[in-house]
Amino acid sequence: MINRFHHLKYSQVAILGFVVVKLILAHHYSFPEWASLGFIVLSLAIVILASSRKEKE
């Protein structure tokens, strides 16, 4: 199953980068929970779509 998601590593990098930025800015700005969850869902959705398109080719 994991072999089907060719671009998963890019999504992981984006999510971890978002977490790092969120932790750095935590003392100055509070991110809403929906923004964090939305970013994670959007990132994974883009990876699923990109991987499924690559699989068709």
Explain what you see.
The chain is built from two helices and no strands. Helix 1 runs antiparallel to helix 2 (33-56). The radius of gyration is 14 Å and the shape is elongated. The two termini are 18 Å apart. It has helices at residues 8-24, 33-56. The mean pLDDT is 87. The protein is mainly α.
Concise summary:
The protein has 57 residues and is mainly alpha-helical. The chain is 72% helix and 0% strand.
The shape is elongated
Order of helices and strands: HH
State the end-to-end distance.
Answer: 18 Å
User: What fraction strand?
Assistant: under 5%
Number of strands: 0
In terms of structural class, how would the helical and strand content be classed? mainly alpha
How many individual helices?
A: 2
Rg result:
14 Å
Spans of at least 5 consecutive residues with low confidence = none
Helix content: over 70%
Average pLDDT rating: 87
Main sheet summary: none
How are the SSEs ordered, and which strands pair?
Layout: H1 8-24, H2 33-56
